[in-house]
Amino acid sequence: MESFSLILAIVVITALAFDFTNGFHDTANAMATTISTGALKPKVAVAMSAALNLVGAFLSVEVANTISKGLVDETGIRPEVIFAALVGAILWNLLTWLVGLPSSSSHALMGGLVGAAIASAGFGAVHGGVLVTKVLLPAVAAPVVAGVAALVATRLSYTIGARTDGKAAEKGHRVGQIASAGLVSLAHGTNDAQKTMGVITLALVAGGALAPGSNPPTWVILSAGLAIALGTYIGGWRIIRTMGKGLTDLQPQQGFAAQTSAATAILASSHLGFSLSTTHVVSGSVMGAGLGRTGGVVRWSTATRMAVAWVLTLPAAALVAAGAELVTGLGDWGTALVALFLVASSAAIYRISRRDVVDHTNVNETGEPAGVVTQAIAAVTPPPAATPAGTPATGTPAAGPAEVHTVPAGEVRAVPAAEVHAVSAAEDLPDLSVAIPLQATVAPATDPAPKTAQAAPPAAAV
């Protein structure tokens, strides 16, 4: 019984750790567009989102009931199974955070539960109808619906705003964007915080601490809300950068339309008990807002990487969870081994992330590498050559016809790089100087004195 109580405590702690990663992984869903358009300062935005996530956790338990009562069979689940599911979900969250991809924490958790349940009790332990109707179908429909709604809302915003003063309209959209971002945070608390509540409730039922079919206790609701709020305040800056700057460039009108559309979709799904991915909804709305502005673009390479991550989330988390479940089935030492693997992997991912730190100070930087042309020119440009002693410094010639003087053969003169290379003003290259020999006019050997060179046309000037 003591060993059982210990594993149950480990499951609860691991579930709250997942909730924490869910918070900083999904902060971008609520605040990325608000930060990228400058409507709110980064730290103010994440603090506001954290507070509203906590409030949202108390508004509903419908999604929690979907997790604890509907997705898997409660009767055949051991606490070790839920622990294995959480391991798969946490590792997937950390990996996608490291590379800055806004994948779905919800689907990572679903995949972990499905994989661990199948490894423990077979395919019969998963309720396929619930998985399809309340997880898979919303995953496909939600980003499409939110994207179309955001596209229409963006065009309406620009159409209505064209008839008003530009500065006043932009200020109004910024205020509206702050309000809609707060609504998304509130909706995120009603949806994502409940998933952890559902997992903890399922563990308590599996451990015999709660009767089957029970709603989450108050302490579970409070602890889950606090964990996701703390994770949100930490801020998943890598994913905020991708969502706010890497997917498209948003103006306040677009940010307002995207946030409002996303909040509406998430709140509706929470009311219906759909375990919706807020990441999918917000990503779809951001892409729709990007396409809704005339001349707006979506970076489809980034969108494609995100879509690949979405497709891989369920099976990847399921495979890791299934492997963890097989190890925990070996006994207490197997559970300890999985716990050690989780801690070591998390620490390694964190250390790797410190090599390229992204935080509130640089979250709005695009971090694009130098262009190919810039790198090529920098690679082939020769280093500065020393100017021989006694040679007078020569500045940039003034506009107009240049004079050509007689120069002794073999003498060299420093010429600024701007006279030799036509470099675009957009290229950020150092001011290099190269030494080149000049055309010389030498007097014949029979003449007592050198002849002055005749003036050359302007086109011949060096």
In short:
The protein is mainly alpha-helical and 462 residues long. The chain is built from 15 helices and 2 strands. It has a two-stranded antiparallel ribbon with strand order 1-2.
Would you give an account of this structure?
With 462 residues, the protein is mainly alpha-helical. It is 65% helix and 2% strand. It has helices spanning 2-36, 42-56, 62-71, 79-98, 105-121, 128-161, 166-206, 218-234, 237-246, 252-272, 278-292, 300-328, 332-353, 372-380, 417-420, and strands spanning 412-416, 433-437. The protein has a two-stranded antiparallel sheet. Helix 2 runs antiparallel to helix 8 (218-234). The longest helix has 41 residues, at 166-206. It is globular, with a radius of gyration of 31 Å.
Termini, distance in Å? 92 Å
Average pLDDT rating: 75
Based on secondary structure, the structural category is mainly alpha
Series of secondary-structure elements, N-terminal to C-terminal? HHHHHHHHHHHHHHEHE
Number of strands: 2
Helix content: 55-70%
Stretches with pLDDT under 50, minimum 5 residues:
367-407, 410-448, 450-456, 458-462
**Strands in their spatial order, largest beta sheet:** 1-2
